[in-house]
Design goal:
With 181 residues, the protein is α+β, with helices and mostly antiparallel strands. The radius of gyration is 22 Å and the shape is elongated. 24% of the residues are buried.
Length: 181
């Protein structure tokens, strides 16, 4: 955050970026890659005597399961939160999908959440619970909770969540010049 004189109008030309990473997600990704490798090995070594239908099912099953696990876990290895002049953007994983861009005009408030756990949300990833709202949980720890004007809530795990909340609140309530004189 930048220091500025009290009552001075601020131009918000900088972008705040934060992220959270879960290195444990690499283990399921490796398991998914191993499943895909098994499917490829089965396809290359077609010495099955039971016919081609069981072989094709095994190959397709291994490759499909491997792709699902691999891309499902790589999508939530980390999350990036970006706050610019007009939007809050959440991008997940190396591909950046799922991605959610929320205009600041749709945000009613932001709160620091000191302890977000996958257990409270039903696991890691992009989660929805009717009584709590939506969350992007990639690790346990601090996060932010955005209250939207439509009544929904979005919780995001991110490092330095207090700074993210301060930046969002600052952008929601811009400093106006006070009365002079």
């Amino acid at each position: 955050m930048r220091d500025r004189p009290r009552g001075a109008h601020t131009s918000y030309s900088y972008v705040w970026t934060g992220r959270a990473t879960n290195r444990m997600q690499w283990l399921p990704a490796l398991i998914g890659a191993a499943c895909m490798a098994l499917g490829i090995v089965l396809a290359a070594d077609s010495a099955w005597s039971n016919g081609t239908a069981p072989l094709a099912m095994a190959v397709v099953g291994c490759i499909a399961a491997g792709l699902l696990v691999l891309f499902g876990t790589l999508a939530f290895v980390h999350v990036v939160l970006r706050v610019d002049e007009d939007n809050v953007e959440v991008r997940c994983g190396h591909i950046g999908v799922p991605r959610r861009r929320i205009p600041l005009s749709h945000v009613a408030g932001a709160a620091f959440v000191p302890h977000v756990t996958p257990r409270h949300w039903g696991g890691w990833g992009y989660r929805w619970r009717p009584e709590k709202g939506t969350a992007v949980v990639v690790r346990r720890g601090e996060g932010i909770a955005l209250s939207l004007w439509d009544g929904h809530t979005l919780t995001i795990t991110v490092d330095d969540a207090e700074a993210a909340v301060a930046v969002i609140r600052d952008r929601l309530h811009p400093h106006r010049p006070g009365p002079t004189g």
